[in-house]
Amino acid sequence: MSALSLAVRDSNTMLRRNLLHARRYPSLTLNLLLTPIMMLLLFVYIFGDVMSAGIGGGTADRSEYIAYLVPGIVMMTIGGTTVGTAVSISMDMTEGIIARFRTLAIHRGSVLIGHVVGSVLQCLASVVLVGAVAVAIGFRSTDATALEWIAAFGLLALFALALTWIAVGMGLISPNPEAASNNALPLVFLPLISSTFVPIDAMPGWFQPIAEYQPFTPAIETLRGLLLGTEIGHNGWLALTWCLALTVLGYLWSKSVFNRDPK
Predict the structure, then answer these.
(1) What share of the chain is helix, strand, coil (3-state, %, to 5)?
(2) How far apart are CA 31 and CA 208, in angstroms?
(3) Which of 85, 184, 222, 229 is most buried (most C-beta within 10 Å)?
(4) Structure confidence by residue, pLDDT tens digits, 47-56
């Protein structure tokens, strides 16, 4: 077999291993998934009228706020799900299975590739579940064309890939799963200080640069534009640039840490 065939075979084996773990131990994924769902329900049914009145200039329209909120919650779902990747990688490192894999005649990068592909699939599955809840409470995307839906799905997959590689690096440098969970908290925290809940121009002036110059905001605004037919502007290019930059950075970082000789 060629080197490429061996890499694909071993990566597929590691992918099945990670998906089997996710199926046998779903508690971590479910716990991370509950957070965006609870945030969605909280902001729609508890704060929905007040938030929509503030954004709409005094007119309370919960349906408009649902449409505004859902793209941000979807991106928050991706950030939360990748925390499980960091924890899973750290568990493999601390429990010794990675050391065992290093002694086997398998493709060295297949371990990380299995984690990354498995995490991206879990992210997309989580997005589908959150999207189903959003539709159930009233979210509609009637203005999006088939091409815009394809572009939205591509953006979600690329964003999930970028954050997953960053989460892999965080897991590799963590001494234990608890530390990995803490190290990955920015992936959960950043959506809270983005344009998920309110427009950036409604925030205090000193805070607006913090919300604007981070990866979640342009990704959220691009997804919002694709699903709702609003203007995307420069956010599309910014989101794509962030995704590519984070993917390359996370890959090189993870590869460098993983290839270090164990102490």
Answers:
(1) 80, 0, 20
(2) 31
(3) 85
(4) 777 777 666 5
- Extract the tokens encoding 137: 């409470």
User: Is 152 within 8 Å of 236 (Cβ atoms)?
Assistant: no
Question: Nearest Cα to 71, choosing from 191, 177, 170, 215?
Answer: 191
Q: What is the pLDDT of residues 153-164, one digit of tens each?
A: 999 999 999 999
The position carrying tokens 């691009």 is: 222
Residues 80-135 pLDDT 10s: 888 888 988 888 888 878 778 777 777 777 888 888 998 899 899 999 999 999 99
Q: Which of 74-104 are b and which e, b meaning 16 or more Cβ less than 10 Å from the residue's Cβ? A: bbbbbbbbbbbbbbbbbbbbeeeebeeeeee
Q: What tokens does 79 get?
A: 């950030």
Calculate the alpha carbon distances from 49 to 18, 190, 231, 243 in Å.
42, 25, 24, 34
SS (H, E, C) 50-71: HHHHHHCCCCCCHHHHHHHHHH
The H-assigned helical ranges of 137-234 are 146-173, 177-183, 186-189, 208-212, 216-228
Sequence-separated (6 or more) residues with CB below 8 Å from residue 234: 218
- Give the DSSP letter string of 135-155: HHTT----S--HHHHHHHHHH
pLDDT(137) > 70:
yes
| Residue 50: how many other CB atoms lie within 10 Å | 12
Assessment of whether the complete model's pTM goes beyond 0.85: yes
For residue 102, give both structure tokens: 């290093």
Residue pair 259/174 in contact by the 8 Å Cβ criterion: no
